Amino acid sequence: MEIKINGQIFEGKQVELDEIAGKKQIAFSFDVTSETYHDVTTLLYKNDFQVNIPEKSLSFPAVIQEYSTSTTNLYEKGNTSEFYLKVREK
To answer: Is 2-89 a domain of CATH 3.40.190?
Structure first.
């Protein structure tokens, strides 16, 4: 499923959409390569997002609830890591 965060497109895997206490929440995994690592982490460190999910006609401002990565050696060329991200509506 395509998920846009601040205009950057992510191909979400294992996508879970929820609503908790009246606030939208999305959790998903996505692949990050050594080539895209810097751009992705720079975006995530902002922790101030506009989330758009075109397939579900959803759009909401959000912040990170959970974040993890399967590996941290993405400085080595050719490596790929699976990131997990859960964001919740502000």
So the answer is: no
